[in-house]
Design goal:
Blueprint (H helix, E strand, L loop, with lengths): L4 H24 L11 H17 L1 H20 L9 H15 L4 H16 L1 H11 L2 H17 L16 H25 L4 H10 L3 H14 L4 H26 L1 H6 L1 H22 L4 H4 L8 H25 L4 H9 L3 H13 L9 H48 L1
Helix pairs in contact: 1-2, 1-4, 1-5, 2-3, 2-4, 3-4, 4-5, 8-9, 8-10, 8-15, 9-10, 9-11, 10-11, 10-18, 11-13, 11-17, 11-18, 13-18, 15-16, 16-17, 16-18, 17-18
Length: 412
């Protein structure tokens, strides 16, 4: 067998894998009768054994792993009722496999070794987080979200169905996942930052994903925990600020002249909703922090399904209007598209302007109409999800924003 420089490098990586993981295990093996039999030397030798076995034959690696498993089983049953942990034993077998992997993919083996060492060293923080921080209800909600994303989503058909072929089941289920995710982000922000600033921050960030879904999630939060009403309103309101910011960024990329034509309307709308959101956020500071930090549900599956159903109805209505009116009026078409998403409508209109089929000035009205109609959709979501008090304050903010936007256009 010819041993070249690359082979020596692979053996060096296998040696490093064993030393890295073995060092951590050596510090954690304990002392006295409870002392673990495997330390830095055992792990280093195991990694090199996996590497050398792989050099000669894959089946030799399999036999070596089988033999080590026998030795581990004997040592495990000789513990005689002591703490029956399997972490060290499983890690020893995995270290052998990483040693073998280092002979063909040294970078991957080294990266996995680092991950294993981090997991081993972070035993106490991980256990403390799982047992002391995450509640049983939060864990169940996480499993529901994971099942909705990883199991159900791949099974949902990705094609247009229903009246006017306006509904894509996959897109609607993505909305359900999106609403649950945004609500979960709000819950995490509530846990980490407190109700005073947690929900406003979560609302602003989530607004870049979907402002309508954010309004729905915040409404459900306010209905579940009334003491969080002001903070939830602030989060829902600031999501509309994210709508303005994202709209400006999209227009800057697609057609800067259109953005320039909309500069004053967007500026007026953004500043007005930012001020309103700041006022509502400051009002939440009056709440008792003890009450604000009461446990709450991570998300509501029922709310997510209701919001998806409302959007489905809006999509069917939009498709019906398009079928009846056609493309005769750009303003009508933009307003219809704005029922579900203002950004899609703005991109469509700005693309026409970029193709010189429409002047930047002529693009202003269709985009503002789509923005206004989209605000109406947010208002409907606020009523459905949050009830009277929540929807009143959110709708007031939306009216202020839309009015300021049109004032900006009038001044222009």
């Amino acid at each position: 067998m010819i041993i070249d420089n690359a082979l020596w490098l692979n053996l060096a990586v296998a040696l490093g894998v064993g030393l890295l993981i073995g060092t951590e295990r050596e510090r954690s093996k304990g002392t006295g009768p409870e002392k673990s039999p495997a330390g830095i030397r055992t792990f280093t030798i195991a990694s090199l054994l996996g590497a050398v076995s792989t050099m000669f034959n894959f089946w030799l690696l399999v036999v070596s792993i089988f033999c080590v498993m026998i030795f581990i089983a004997i040592a495990y049953f000789n513990k005689q009722g002591k703490e029956p942990g399997l972490t060290t034993e499983v890690t020893l077998i995995f270290t052998m496999i990483l040693g073998g992997l280092a002979m063909s993919s040294s970078a991957l083996a080294a990266a996995l070794a680092v991950v294993v060492a981090i997991l081993l060293a972070a035993k106490e923080p991980i256990h403390g987080f799982v047992l002391g921080v995450v509640t049983k209800d939060e864990l169940n909600d996480f499993l529901i979200l994971a099942a909705a994303t990883l199991i159900i989503l791949p099974l949902v058909p990705n094609q247009a169905i229903g009246p006017f072929e306006a509904i894509n089941p996959r897109n609607l289920w993505l909305i359900v996942i999106l609403v649950m995710t945004i609500s979960a982000l709000g819950h995490l922000a509530l846990r980490w930052l407190g109700g005073r600033i947690g929900l406003p921050v979560a609302g602003l960030v989530s607004g870049f994903i979907s402002s309508i879904a954010t309004v729905g999630a915040m409404g459900a939060r306010a209905k579940e925990t009334p003491i969080l009403l002001s903070s939830a309103v602030a989060g829902a309101t600031l999501s509309s600020l994210a709508t303005i910011l994202q709209l400006a960024m999209l227009l800057a990329v697609i057609h800067p002249p259109t953005l320039q034509a909309l500069m004053w309307p967007l500026a007026f709308g953004g500043v007005s909703i930012a001020i309103y959101g700041l006022v509502v956020t400051l009002s939440s500071l009056q709440k008792s922090e003890t009450e604000i930090n009461k446990p709450s549900k991570t998300f509501s599956v029922k709310t997510a399904l209701i919001l998806a159903a409302v959007i489905a109805v809006a999509l069917v209505a939009s498709a019906a209007l398009k079928a009846w009116f056609g493309q005769a009026g750009l303003v009508v078409a933009s307003g219809v598209a704005g029922v579900a998403d203002v950004h899609a409508s703005a991109i469509s209109v700005a693309s026409l302007a970029a193709a010189s089929k429409l002047s930047p000035e002529s693009a202003v009205i269709p985009i503002l109409v789509a923005f206004s109609v989209n605000s109406v959709s947010k208002a409907v979501m606020a009523v459905i999800s949050g009830g009277k008090d929540f929807s009143y304050k959110v709708i007031l903010g939306l009216i202020v924003q839309v009015a300021a936007t049109w004032v900006g256009w009038w001044l222009l």
